[in-house]
Write a structure and sequence with these properties.
Length: about 270
């Protein structure tokens, strides 16, 4: 479902000229990240479950952390896009030019990769105990449980890293939508308010599904969590979010639904 939904979203935005705007360009990149996300993690999970192979893969861990950091920053860029579009509509073509969008996306990938490199380099030097078997997948909390050394200093580093890549973007998103809500409240057009509320609530739903489980897993002390809780919450940001994002954005977005109808009409016309 995640593969089909995200591929469909990318192709729809690529093929429908009505969706060739900064907002949907960023959305297509979110779908691309979710596509990579599910393609990186789900096969490893399936291999562990079906073959009983529970050894950690640092390659999977590296791509997971890269995508996790990049997606947080991209979600913040999408909130900034809505903030500029609603609060400063006359400046929108300048602030959200194609060059600005490309820089935002490239910056998300680069910063996510740098963060992932730092964590992976540390993980390579950790001595692991017992069978080196992980309980769900190559997430940082699951790896630290196997360490034979005191990891409190590294856990503090993880806390700082999570704050930078999760909480700061979330604060930026909250600020952007706070300003958006004030601007929407002043709108005279009921249709404009409805469209703005719909777009913003869709994005906030996606942010909540993705960020809340991440924040609890990475910011809550390990002594207050259980491996079962970590495993349950990991399902949200590794499986459910990539699967639900295309559904949320398509069902609650009139422009995407309109593009789907146009594409369906085009396909039927070709068959006839």
């Amino acid at each position: 479902m995640a593969l089909f939904g995200n591929l469909s979203m990318i192709l729809l935005i690529l093929l429908d000229t009505h969706l060739h705007t900064p907002m949907y360009f960023l959305l297509s990149q979110l779908s691309l990240m979710d596509l990579n996300y599910i393609s990186t993690i789900a096969p490893k999970m399936a291999s562990n479950f079906l073959l009983g192979n529970k050894s950690p893969s640092l390659g999977v861990g590296f791509f997971f952390l890269t995508l996790a950091g990049a997606e947080d920053l991209l979600l913040a860029s999408m909130a900034y896009d809505r903030y500029v579009a609603i609060c400063f509509p006359l400046h929108y073509p300048i602030h959200m030019s194609k060059r600005a969008c490309v820089l935002m996306i490239a910056g998300s990938w680069v910063m996510g990769s740098i963060n992932s490199c730092a964590h992976t380099a540390y993980a390579l030097h950790i001595p692991y105990c017992h069978s080196r078997a992980i309980d769900h997948f190559c997430d940082v909390p699951a790896m630290l449980i196997l360490a034979c050394i005191d990891t409190r200093v590294y856990e503090y580093t993880v806390f700082v890293s999570t704050t930078l890549f999760l909480m700061l973007p979330f604060i930026g998103i909250a600020y952007s939508y706070g300003r958006v809500l004030l601007a929407v409240h002043r709108m005279h057009s009921a249709e404009g308010r409805k469209k703005a509320y719909s777009t913003c609530s869709t994005h906030l739903t996606v942010v909540t599904f993705y960020s809340a489980p991440f924040a609890y897993t990475y910011l809550c002390p390990r002594s207050l969590r259980s491996p079962t809780e970590d495993k349950f919450l990991a399902v949200f940001y590794t499986i459910l979010t990539p699967m639900l994002n295309p559904i949320i954005y398509s069902l609650r977005n009139k422009e995407v639904m309109g593009a789907l109808r146009r594409m369906n009409h085009r396909i039927l016309s070709v068959k006839m």
